[in-house]
Backbone:
């Protein structure tokens, strides 16, 4: 017997429950909330999602999601163009920006090295980072990757590639606990970790 009184409701709940962290009960609450709102709310919600999916691009400079070929951060000449913070994905950019403690640029790798999941260096935007070091006046690379085995492996791989260019390579202070993702770290802790960053060599000695 169908647990829903409407096939259309069941379809909506099924699609919403595919979102990360959204179970069937939460999906049902969301669907019923949409039904309670004015029809224009559902229309705006649907059109904004479709527009986002179709029109968002990746910044040609840093690989962050953007509305144009160059994202607003890279296009802002008030930012410190000599410092690049290397992160796993867009969620980390948002987390660091929320601290208001970093004024440099970013480089989004699009993931981290994870052999178990079949993700190697060539699957990430690491070569693009090296190209940026070649063509831009980069003086510091901040490795702000997850404090996990995979994150540390990726950081060490990048460190080995960039150290020969004479660029200062640092890492965020371990105020971020081992195993933590940056997006779940509170803003004060993350901000202090950025400000109190350490030479990458020091992090290797402690690990």
Residues:
């Amino acid at each position: 017997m169908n647990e829903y009184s409407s096939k259309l409701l069941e379809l909506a709940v099924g699609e919403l429950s595919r979102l990360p962290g959204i179970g069937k009960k939460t999906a049902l609450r969301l669907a019923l909330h949409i039904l309670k709102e004015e029809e224009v709310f559902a229309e705006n919600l649907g059109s904004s999602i479709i527009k986002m999916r179709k029109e968002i691009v990746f910044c040609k400079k840093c690989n962050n999601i953007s509305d144009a070929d160059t994202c607003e951060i890279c296009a802002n000449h008030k930012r410190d163009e000599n410092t690049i913070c290397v992160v796993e994905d867009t969620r980390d950019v948002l987390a660091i920006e929320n601290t208001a403690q970093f004024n440099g640029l970013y480089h989004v790798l699009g993931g981290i090295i994870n052999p178990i999941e079949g993700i190697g260096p060539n699957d990430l935007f690491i070569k693009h980072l090296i190209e940026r070091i070649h063509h831009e006046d980069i003086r510091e690379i901040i490795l702000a990757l997850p404090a996990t085995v995979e994150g540390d492996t990726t950081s060490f791989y990048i460190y080995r590639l960039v150290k020969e260019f004479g660029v200062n390579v640092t890492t965020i202070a371990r105020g971020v606990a081992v195993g933590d993702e940056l997006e779940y770290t509170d803003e004060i802790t993350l901000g202090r970790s950025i400000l109190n960053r350490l030479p990458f060599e020091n992090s290797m000695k402690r690990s």
The two ends are 57 Å apart (CA to CA). The domain at 60-206 is CATH 3.40.1360.10 (Dna Topoisomerase Vi A Subunit; Chain: A, domain 2). The longest helix spans residues 39-55. The chain is about 45% helix and 15% strand.
